[in-house]
Amino acid sequence: MNENFLAFIWKYRLYQQPLFTIDGKQIDVLSPGMENPDSGPDFFNARLRIDTMIWVGNVEIHNKASDWYLHNHQSDPAFNNTVLHVVYDSNSPVTTNVGFIVPQLELKQFLTREPVASYRRMMETLHWIPCEAELNQTDSLIVEKMLERSLVERLEEKTAYIRELLQRWNGDWMQVFFIVLARAFGARVNASAFELMAQATPVSLVLKNADNLNTLEALLFGQAGLLSEQFEDPYPQNLLREYRYLKHKYSLHTIPYSCWKFMRIRPSGFPTVRISQLAAFYHKNYRHLSSFLNAPVHEELINAFDIHASPYWDDHLKFDQNSACLTKNIGADAVNGVIINAVANLSFCYLKDFSHEKAEMIPDLLYSMPPENNNVTRKWNKLVGKVHSAGHSQAVLHLKKNYCEQKKCLNCLIGHAVIRDI
Fold this sequence. Notes:
It contains 17 helices and nine strands. The chain has 422 residues and is α+β, with helices and mostly antiparallel strands. A hairpin with a 5-residue loop joins strand 1 and strand 2. The chain is elongated, with a radius of gyration of 29 Å.
């Protein structure tokens, strides 16, 4: 039997009453105690009546009673105040560091059928979501509350990466903004290459040259390793001349051309096109970049990302290679992807440090945006109901990855509801 499940049963009193110790003394649980997520006893400050005596202390949970000795609790003073040992299988008496024989409850005698059956069914199922069969019967308010929690957890998870970058770049928010934004412009296929390019490029040079789009494009294309020695078209020839000057003046180093992937990518998502669009974003918005960290609203962001690649890319996907003519605007889905995967996370992280109350506006930003369309959200739509916003789609992605796939049903409000049959 899973110890986490036994702790769940104990915490929510999902057992038959009255309870008795293995030597026949009645247990009245006045309070199961406070769950301990760290090392030490599983529950602090429980209040129990064993026969006629009130006991106040800690409760330890094990599958087998002999696990007490396997974990060396008998020699750990932290367990001296244990007033009850809750086990599934009572195969051994246990004592504390001071020789106290701990009262023991063999819980398997008092388990009710429904919670155990629900838990085992979810642990053994091969369904896409462990609680798939019960999901439609679960209170929609519980589902919504779990999604709200999942969205905040996802934002917190994303900020961990941003904080690592901040530490590496000595708290330079503009450099970190450039790296995270560039990675989002690369989407799934070229995210790593864009990140490498941004890390190799001092953001001070980007901002210094942002008023000149041609120079800015030369800087980014050159740092990306996409400017070779021989070009036929005037546009890349001009970029190469400009970049040679910048490279010599600032001792720049390019990333390898081999980092970039061009196969099976839509024309609007080619890395060359996206680099030009990234340059266009900085050319348009370099004077007010700090506003993107300070709880931006969706309408302002849509205007900021109303950009397109340079005209050369209307009929090119690579330098010196003509293609079908198409103005390379950054599409609505791509804009939303950049906002979701870069701007929202950056702003949430920034506001957590500098304006904690405003950080609560970032979930609202995501709730105001259209939902993502992917395999997870489509499956969720069929099972549960329509995903209405990017906030919900982000929450669903987090819930599926961090709870459902790992079968952490005991940590999920929806799992709680199913097991407890609320």
